[in-house]
Amino acid sequence: MPLSQWVITDNSAVTTLVGRGDEHLKHIENTLNVKLIARGNVIAIQGPDRDQALARQVLDLLAQWAYAGQPIRLDTVDAAVIAVQEGTESQFLHLLTESVYTTTQGRIIRPKTVGQQVYIEGIRQNTLVFGIGPAGTGKTYLAMAMAVQALKTHDVERIILTRPAVEAGEKLGFLPGALEDKVDPYLRPLYDALFDFLGQEATERYRERGHIEVAPLAYMRGRTLNSSFIILDEAQNTTYEQMKMFLTRLGYGSKMVVTGDDTQVDLRGETSGLREAEHILQGIPGIRMIHLGRRDVVRHPLVGEIIAAYQHFEETRSPTS
């Protein structure tokens, strides 16, 4: 097979680019039909001419990532490969300069895939955004980062985070404590994200002052939510009536983000309000439906494989099985 060489000009960026034990190069090999061998700052590329060209483009993108001092993970490598295959290299490089929020520890929250970048832009440009996709695509996390940033820059006066308290095999009445104690487990992931962005003490201060509210979806009934950044999480578990009720809470100066995975519906005997809203609200100005997929998963690489396996199973099984 033909053999060529690719050179990284910054020796200090070599380790970042190739990864521990050359894991990033091995990941490219598993995706493209090439063999990569690193010797110092030179990488030998073996394979068909077309695949060699793709590998060189991927390495060029990752080198710019490394030159910028950004860490490279396996999901970064995946995103670079997809960008080259789809001709979206400029969007991939734009991720380097995108910043959604900087935590109190100085960690920069930014989109990690082109799909996530589209999602962020959709939130910026629209009043109501639906972020639909599987676990691990950053739907809720990125929306919450946008919400916290909007609160700190005084674009909104408060953040409202809500979830439907759906009983997934466990009755609320059997759980110990008062109502607040019973619904708290459903809301815990939202608190965890807030603690990540603001720290626990600052989060509690914002809550005490009424600038952050975390509550079950039922608590939204009868309210008009002005000057707020409102996030409905796990929206696939809303009923038609609940979704209609929630969406009509929108007030002046507010923004709404609805997130959910329409393949993980826990409702029994009812159609998901998220699925119905997708069809009912299509084409309305100011509303954007954004679908994230397997390629936007930024958890362990196996999560993407698990999602794909389940999708294949659900698409091929017989209706009566």
Overall SS class: alpha/beta
Radius of gyration computed on alpha carbons: 22 Å
Beginning-to-end CA distance, first to last residue: 48 Å
How large a portion of the residues is in β-strands, by DSSP E? 15-25%
Q: List the secondary-structure elements in sequence, H or E.
A: EHHEEHHHEEHEHEHHEEHEHEH
What level of helicity do the residues show?
40-55%
Strands in their spatial order, largest beta sheet: 8-7-9-10-6-11
Envelope shape? globular
Tally of helical segments: 12
Q: Could you describe the largest sheet, including whether it forms a barrel?
A: 6 strands, parallel
Mean pLDDT: 86
Q: Low-confidence parts, pLDDT < 50 over ≥5 residues?
A: 167-175
Topology, number of strands: 11
Quaternary state of this entry equals single chain
Please explain how this structure is put together:
It is globular and about 70 Å long. The protein has twelve helices and eleven strands. The strands form three sheets. A six-stranded parallel beta sheet has the order 8-7-9-10-6-11. The chain is an alpha/beta fold and 321 residues long. 39% of the residues are buried.
Explain briefly what this protein structure is:
The protein has 321 residues and is an alpha/beta fold. 43% of the residues lie in helices and 16% in strands. The protein has a 6-stranded parallel beta sheet. A 3-stranded antiparallel beta sheet has the order 1-3-2.
